[in-house]
Amino acid sequence: MKIAIPDNNGEVNQHFGQSRSFSIIEIDNNSQVIDIKTVSAAGLQHQHEGIADFLRNQGVEVVIVGGIGQGAIDGLESRGLKVLFGASGSVKDTAEAFAEGRFISKRTVCNHHGAHHHR
Fold first, then answer.
1. Which of 8, 42, 81, 89 has the fewest CB atoms within 10 Å of its CB?
2. Given this model, what pLDDT does residue 117 score?
């Protein structure tokens, strides 16, 4: 199984839509992390379906995020990706917690997009 986590210098990026890179983590049948690679998603910021397609093309099934907006959730889920919420700290620790069944998804949705004011 492959999972993806938005990466900010080894830490979970708390703003999914601004992520310029993702860690793609492979987990074996024994619930062990066997590979972590970081891939660039530069240019895809706030392109929800583009990010989803990019991750699907990497073989990802599950995306673990910190903060994320509803548009990004919809984009990921529309492409068949499962979204887990509320991650923080290091990407490696988050991946290991998920692999070992210790990660608890906590729905954390960013709603700041409605706060943009244009004059």
1. 42
2. 33
